[in-house]
Amino acid sequence: MGQGTATGTGTVLAVALAILVIALAGGPGMAGVSLVEDPARIFARCTGRLTAEIEHHWLTDTSATEDEHQRREMLDLLEAASRPDQARGLLSLRSEARAAQRALLDRATFGPRDEAPRAARQAERLIAPCRALLPG
């Protein structure tokens, strides 16, 4: 990934470590987050999902401010947790997660009435652990 962002690398690493400690302790909202998996892969998927959430706000003409902030924080975590040799695979994970989340959000908003509630619940179920990884 790239060089450091506005958030200091030491701060990002401390936040990432804190997240892992919370997850190991089974903190709230951590269901569905596997610590057996490389954290960079988790952060990549979450970045993709948050990107889809932002795009959905744009599509529905609603405020994306909070999701944009969360995506920036997730990108900081992704950068801190990833190695240069992972860049291609992590970008693929981001893209796949974005497409999956976007499809659920589209179905929840524009799909058949009988499918919309289930799609909305699934989209929320998949984004909730990502939001739980972020401070505040």
Name the descriptors:
136 residues, mainly alpha, 0% strand
Could you describe the 3D structure shown?
The chain is mainly alpha-helical and 136 residues long. 71% of the residues lie in helices and 0% in strands. It has five helices and no strands. It is globular and about 45 Å long.
Note poorly predicted spans: 1-7
What would the average pLDDT be, to the nearest integer? 83
Q: Give the percentage of residues in beta strands.
A: under 5%
Tell me about the biggest sheet? none
Helix fraction bin: over 70%
SS element count, helices:
5
First-to-last CA distance: 25 Å
What structural category arises from helix and sheet content?
Answer: mainly alpha
- Write down the secondary-structure element order: HHHHH
Shape: globular
Alpha carbon gyration radius: 15 Å
Total strand count, please?
A: 0
